[in-house]
Specification:
By secondary structure, this protein is α/β, with parallel strands linked by helices. 45% of the residues lie in helices and 23% in strands. The mean pLDDT is 86.
């Protein structure tokens, strides 16, 4: 069974979006694992309200790469939109969400 891990930073909108994404993956027979476990896909829903949020986003991208270098890392949320070049340096793939 394929595994997906989610990590969510920031506001209630991000929390809601992550819950919706989890449901989509569950409906496609993915097993949702904790964000510290090895997964095939990591989805990091980022925040950039503060420099702390930016830093935490980068940390989770690097952590996911270490857990499984062959995984797909999808970076969504504010940070991926505001700092796409920075995200590009740290990941394999990125999805931008537009509100």
């Amino acid at each position: 069974m394929r595994k997906v891990a989610f990590h969510t930073l920031g506001c209630k909108v991000n929390q809601y979006e992550t819950e919706a994404m989890e449901e989509l993956f569950e409906n496609r027979d993915y097993k949702i694992v904790r964000d510290g476990e090895k997964a095939d896909i990591y989805i990091i829903n980022t925040c950039t309200v503060t420099n702390f949020g930016d830093r935490k986003s980068r940390q989770f991208i690097r952590r996911a790469k270490k857990l499984n270098p062959n995984s797909i890392i999808a970076v969504v949320g504010c940070y991926s939109q505001i700092s796409p070049d920075e995200v590009e340096k740290n990941r394999r793939s990125r999805c931008n969400n537009r509100h």
